[in-house]
Specification:
Blueprint: H1 2-20, E1 29-31, H2 38-45, H3 49-61, E2 65-68, E3 71-75
Helix pairs in contact: 1-3, 2-3
Length: 77
């Protein structure tokens, strides 16, 4: 079940980054705007806040995202 959540969150974060993302100085990464809080993202994705946090931690450990100043950066490559 977790692999499904990781894939779902990654795909939806990339879609949000494509539509609303901001350029960043980190090559290959796009920043998710501040308005997309964890609460908003969890609601949009149809998962709990806890599940989203756990999944984001898994994506951090896989080096697919990083969080700086409470802002998500996602690898778009």
């Amino acid at each position: 079940m977790r692999e499904g959540n990781v894939g779902k969150v990654e795909i939806l974060l990339k879609a949000i980054a494509t539509w609303f993302g901001e350029t960043t100085n980190y090559e290959g990464f796009t920043r998710i705007p501040r308005g997309f809080t964890r609460k908003v993202l969890a609601n949009y994705m149809g998962i709990s806040h806890t599940t989203l946090s756990t999944t984001l931690n898994e994506l951090v450990h896989a080096d697919l995202i990083f969080i700086q100043n409470q802002r998500l950066h996602i690898l778009m490559n």
